[in-house]
Amino acid sequence: MSLGMGELVLILLIAFVVVGPKDLPKIARTIAKGIRQVKRLYADVKQDLDLESEIKEIEQAADLSSTLKGEAEDMARIREEIRRIQQTKLL
Question: pTM (2 decimals)?
Fold first, then answer.
């Protein structure tokens, strides 16, 4: 959403008529302050969502690591069982 120059002039003209020249700068500062607060809030929410996404990725990596560790332990048990079977056949 972007405002063209004509639209901006029209808004300022209406504000000038409705509010008056005396209070217009004060209202403009208040609006600008509100816009800054909304931008900060948006940035904070975005940062929180990014952190949450990173946490989910880390949790998924930890789950994968845990699964791989379990599979490696299974492989070690199978290897040991094969060695045991081979030793009994040799005897």
Answer: 0.50
